[in-house]
From TrEMBL:
GO terms for cellular component: plasma membrane
Family that this chain belongs to: Belongs to the TrkH potassium transport family.
Molecular functions (GO terms): metal ion binding; potassium:chloride symporter activity
Keywords from the named record: Cell inner membrane, Cell membrane, Ion transport, Membrane, Metal-binding, Potassium, Potassium transport, Transmembrane, Transmembrane helix, Transport
Protein's membrane topology: Multi-pass membrane protein
Keyword ATP-binding: no
Subcellular location per the Swiss-Prot or TrEMBL entry: Cell inner membrane
Transmembrane segments: 7-32, 38-57, 69-90, 135-160, 181-201, 235-253, 274-295, 326-349, 388-409, 453-478
Listed InterPro entries: Cat_transpt (IPR003445), TrkH (IPR004772)
Protein name per UniProt: Potassium uptake protein, TrkH family
Organism: Caldithrix abyssi DSM 13497
Amino-acid positions noted as binding K(+) in the UniProt annotation, renumbered to this chain: T110, T111, G219, T313, T314, N430
Higher taxonomy: Bacteria, Pseudomonadati, Calditrichota, Calditrichia, Calditrichales
Amino acid sequence: MIHYRSIFHVLSALLLFMIVVLIIPLLISFNFAEPDEIAFLQTMGVLLIVALPLFLLTRGEVTLDIKDGFLIVTLGWTLYALFGALPFYFSGFIPSYTDAFFETMSGFTTTGASILTDIEALPEGLLFWRSLTHWLGGMGIILLSLAILPLLGIGGMQLFKAEVPGPTPDRLTPRIKHTAELLWVVYVAISVIEAVALKLAGMNWFDAWCHTFGTMATGGFSTKNASVGAFNSGLIDYIIIVFMIIAGTNFSLHYRAFKGKFFSYFKDPETLTFMAIILAATVFIAIDILSILGYEQFSFRHVLFQVVSIITTTGYGTSDYEQWPILSKVVLIILMYFGGCAGSTGGGMKIIRSIILFKFAINQVKQLLHPNAVFVVRVGKRSVPQEIVTNIAGFTLLYILLSIIGVLFMSGLGLNWETCIGSVAATINNIGPGFGSVGPTENYAHLPLIGKWFLSFLMLAGRLEIYTVLVLFVPIFWKR
């Protein structure tokens, strides 16, 4: 049974919370005496008119179950994009609502794909709001991946039911509250550390906070047209590399580290695999660039930065990887689909799923040699139930199928294949910059309107682990 009153109450509360959050960019606009302050006030007025009556009319005990969880997660992200686009639209800096929605959906899903041709032309208030959408989306993603999806049984995420201590009743509300309190403290603390580090490295406070928001959420929105490369600082690059890796790692491990259990990182198979992939990809691409383009075109720092940026699905750039050899670009596409660790703010399919599928495939080969033997998939010391393996296999098939459909859809709009593959891979994996005409030095402004709406859907579906969105289109979901 779907509890509509409770759902509307939670959604209206989320919209009222957006009003509070909008005060921050509004104050920045006032401080710089910018013209976009009126746009923020108009947006807050619209939110108040829509959300407050709904919140008051739906008061009472909030009761939520699994179906309600699916609806709140999908509708919550969609409503935030719909209303969060209004400051851009009302200000006139993004005159098309489709473009404003695309930019904001990209922000809240921590994708980082942009339609802006001149980012630096935006006032500071809008630039800050643009980056803040990342950070808010990242907070939601941590909660989603470590509290909600495990209880909903999405794509093998049940493995993380016990990662964070706390009550685990059938109802969602108590666990969500408990998990949020633990993980958001960690999220905020790490964010403050990064902002201070970037300030000490030479950024001003405004740029430091905006790039912290983009890093911790693995989003990638920058205040500069040339992204992080605009600062031309090795120290800034390495600081962001470190924090991209932190953001791409399971936040329950950060929670344990804050409690003194630092060696949890070295005992976690997913984290070790994540680091091994980063090392292997960096070495491979470095050799490929050196052998084909020569030493003059090589920079280890830029290679490491782009590898970490892509696998964590952050999307920041310090160099134009479109100029790299074709084999290096293929490796980057593979890294896009690997993504970060489960329980992180990273997108993609997640490392843990790749580990389980690989071990399952090895077991199938062993089964051919020993038909009567029983082989169990293990991750570390933990046995993975067959139900979860099947769930992950289904998720992976659906993920790849949706990617193929996406490429075919975009090709029907008259785009070349490199742009089709690049745009779909970059949006469904929540990376941002892709290949072709949506590469690291380009943007999504030239795409047809229907293409922008479709890619916005892919951002949402990829961010919410596919099933969370697609289950709403199954008729049985709406039956009692």
